[in-house]
Amino acid sequence: MAVFTEVSEDEARALLRALNLGELRTLRGIQSGIENTNYFVTAEDMFGQREYVLTLFERLTFEQLPFYLHLMKHLAQHGIPVPDPAADRSGDILHTVCGKPAALVNKLEGQHELAPGPDHCAQVGAMLARMHLAGRDYQRRQPNLRGLAWWNETVPVVLPFVSPEQAMLLRGELAYQNHVAASAAYAALPRGPVHADLFRDNVMFEQGRLSGFFDFYFAGVDSWLFDLAVCLNDWAIDLATGAHDAPRARAFVEAYAAVRPLTPAERQLLPAMLRAGALRFWISRLWDFHLPREASLLKPHDPSHFERVLRERVRRPVNAAAVLA
Ligand SMILES: Nc1ncnc2c1ncn2[C@@H]1O[C@H](COP(=O)(O)OP(=O)(O)O)[C@@H](O)[C@H]1O
Ligand SMILES: N[C@@H](CCOP(=O)(O)O)C(=O)O
User: Which residue ranges does the record assign to the Aminoglycoside phosphotransferase domain (predicted)?
Assistant: First the structure.
């Protein structure tokens, strides 16, 4: 369940009026998700009924949120199908509901594709590249808050909860990633705003066509290659084993590269970033699992999944030649 804060109809009504979006018709808590309180909201004005998603942020602060919300608005204005935060009469897109930071965005049509084929992957790959290019002139800066600095801080915190073999892998991989981050190839990677969590459950499809990307609340400025690697580790693997799925990976990367060709540094560091993407989610899942925050994370994700993905990536590196002609 993901309604950590109850929103009354009166509070939702007041927000809709402040945003000039008409009258409240329905307000329905969304049960999935693990970070925030989410509601589907239906409002009606003179043009008819429209559906929105109301999010109350349970973890992110008033200081951090403008980066994410303005990024979504920027991308929406550049034709990327992402939720567009609604502004009040003063132009503000970050609101306060029940004393918490909140946003209201348009509801994307469609459903998740949880068993994607190469065509779904190609659509996501092409849109990911378009999104990276559209973010180039976004002015706000915020690092990926789940990047290397956070891994260095958090690995020591989770080490007491893991086996000696897992501790060895975590320590070794962290050392490897610090080494990679100090390299000239890493410094040459093109960077910009990235989604950083574009898993299958953060993308919508309608009748087989991609209809949107959402859940930008792990976004930040990082290498575009890291974003691509996070995607490949979810869209192009066998979920049961973590094994690389070559046809889906090739479809994804070729479609991405047709919009934005990979640089030599990106081709060189693809295997390392695939390991980085797996390490990032192994650490966060261990942290969520062993150190759950109060009233949150009622449904922690399985950490061992990303341990398997990381071991696969170390044992069988996937290089650029395997995914690009
Ligand atoms: N803009 C949106 N359009 C359509 N559905 C959405 C939208 N935002 C969230 N949802 C729905 O709400 C669910 C939970 O949202 P999510 O962002 O994953 O929550 P959390 O941040 O708490 O993990 C999603 O799986 C999706 O079904
Ligand atoms: N995708 C991450 C967790 C983030 O959860 P979300 O519901 O906000 O997408 C993972 O799988 O560990």
Answer: 26-262
Q: Which ligand is nearest to the CA of 60?
A: 1
Give the domains, in start order, of the chain with CATH numbers.
Answer: 9-106 (3.30.200.20), 118-323 (3.90.1200.10)
Q: Which of 106, 98, 130 is nearest to 49 (CA)?
A: 106
Return d(Cα 254, Cα 122) in angstroms, integer. 7
- Ligand 1 geometric centre to CA of 33 (Å): 6
Walking along the chain (325 residues) 10 residues at a time, the average pLDDT comes out as 86 97 96 85 96 94 96 98 97 97 97 98 98 98 97 98 98 98 98 98 97 96 98 97 96 98 97 98 95 64 96 95 85
From the alpha carbon of 204, which atom of ligand 1 is closest? 4
* Whole-complex ipTM: 0.93
Say if CB 20 and CB 14 are below 8 A apart. no
Contacts of residue 115, defined as CB under 8 A and 6 or more positions apart, other chains included, come to none
Q: CB burial class (10 A; 0-12, 13-18, 19+) of residue 99?
A: exposed
CA angle 250, 256, 259 (to 5 degrees): 140
Return the residue matching tokens 């999010």: 55
Q: Whose CA is nearest to atom 4 of ligand 2?
A: 197
Q: Whose CA is nearest to atom 26 of ligand 1?
A: 32
CA distance 242 to 27: 38
Residue with tokens 């047709």: 258
* Residues in contact with ligand 2 (CB, 6 Å cut-off): 33-35, 197, 199, 201-202, 215, 281, 284-285, 301
Number of Cβ within 10 Å of residue 87's Cβ equals 17
